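Q: Given only this backbone (164 positions), what sequence would you predict?
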C-alpha cells in the first residue's frame, strides 16, 4: 500500500473511533433514598442535588456523580466499565468498577418501598407496555462492606425535554 493511502486511511480510522465516543457533564435535582436496612425496609427519601460526568464509546462507559443531600451529607458514586464485543455482537471481556464513597460496591435495581431486587428481564418486560412505567424502580449502590444498606437514586430520570 502506498504511503499516501496510509496517510489517508489512518486519520479516517481514528476519526471513526472518536465519532462513536461521547462525554458530558450533568447536574440537577432529584430525590435520593438512603436505605439504612434493606431487610427491614428502613429508608429515608430526601431531596438532593447532583453533578457529574457521563460518557461512553464502543469500548467503555463511565458514570461518576457527586450527590449532596438537603441535610448536607454527601455521596459519591462511580460506575465505570470497559468491554469488547464478539462476532455476534455480545459483550465480552467486561470489567467494571463500582464504588460508593470511594469504597467497593455493587449496583442493584430495587423496587421502591419493598426494596426487593428486580431482574433485568423484568425491567425489559416493562418496556413492552405503553406507557412505560419505571417510577417505582431505584438504582441502588450497595457497599460490599455493608450489604444491608444502600444509596439509591431513581432508576430513570426525565429532564425537561423528556430525554434521559
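A: Predicted residues:
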Amino acid at each position: 500500500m502506498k504511503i499516501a493511502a496510509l496517510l489517508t486511511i489512518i486519520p479516517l480510522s481514528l476519526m471513526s473511533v472518536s465519532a462513536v465516543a461521547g462525554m458530558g457533564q450533568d447536574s440537577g435535582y432529584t430525590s435520593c433514598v438512603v436505605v439504612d436496612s434493606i431487610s427491614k425496609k428502613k429508608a429515608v427519601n430526601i431531596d438532593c442535588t447532583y453533578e457529574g460526568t457521563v460518557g461512553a464509546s464502543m469500548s467503555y462507559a463511565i458514570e461518576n456523580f457527586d450527590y449532596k443531600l438537603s441535610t448536607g451529607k454527601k455521596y459519591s458514586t462511580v460506575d465505570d466499565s470497559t468491554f469488547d464485543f464478539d462476532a455476534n455482537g455480545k459483550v465480552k471481556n467486561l470489567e467494571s468498577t463500582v464504588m460508593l464513597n470511594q469504597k467497593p460496591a455493587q449496583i442493584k435495581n430495587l423496587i421502591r418501598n419493598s426494596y426487593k431486587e428486580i431482574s433485568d428481564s423484568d425491567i425489559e418486560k416493562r418496556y413492552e407496555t405503553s406507557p412505560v412505567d419505571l417510577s417505582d424502580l431505584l438504582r441502588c449502590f450497595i457497599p460490599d462492606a455493608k450489604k444491608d444498606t444502600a444509596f439509591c437514586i431513581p432508576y430513570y430520570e426525565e429532564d425537561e425535554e423528556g430525554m434521559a
